[in-house]
Amino acid sequence: MKILVVDDKQSLSELVAQFLGQSYNVTTVENGLAAITWLQEGNLPDLIITDLEMPEMDGFELIKRVKQTGIFSDIPIIVLSCRDSSSDRIECLRLGADDYMVKPFNPEELLIRVDKLLIRQ
Predict the structure, then answer these.
(1) Residue 109, by phi and psi: left (phi above 0), alpha (psi -120 to 50) or beta?
(2) N or C: which end of the chain has fewer CB within 10 A?
(3) pLDDT digits (tens, 9 = 90+) for 52-111
(4) Cβ-contact 111, 20 below 8 angstroms
């Protein structure tokens, strides 16, 4: 199963990729624009994990674009962000995100949430 991790902080992407890479095939890109390009190249991940604050295209716009595109609209999305406000959570869920975790996070908790979302499919 393939997971796409979208975050402009490489150290975080690598941490997530290393932890989830034991169970999943993980690809990392640095922002929403790179993620959309990767998807349009014919890649179809089973799950997307995205940050919110990124250059070129933020996480909100990425969620919106993924959910508006028929072929990608069923891909579950987990938001992983430093922003802990309930309005950000609500906005992400309204746009179509399936889960929201705040950084710093426990990698084990992330793995459990990923497993749950992927088993549901």
Answers:
(1) alpha
(2) C
(3) 999 999 999 999 999 999 999 999 999 999 999 999 999 999 999 999 999 999 999 999
(4) yes
Nearest C-alpha neighbor of 76 from the set 96, 103, 61, 104 = 96
DSSP string of the chain, one letter each residue: -EEEEE-S-HHHHHHHHHHHTTTSEEEEESSHHHHHHHHHTT---SEEEE-S--SSS-HHHHHHHHHHSTTTTTS-EEEEES---HHHHHHHHHHT-SEEEESS--HHHHHHHHHHHHHH-
On whether the pTM is more than 0.90, the answer is: yes
12-64 per-position pLDDT tens digit: 999 999 999 999 999 999 999 999 999 999 999 999 999 999 999 999 999 99
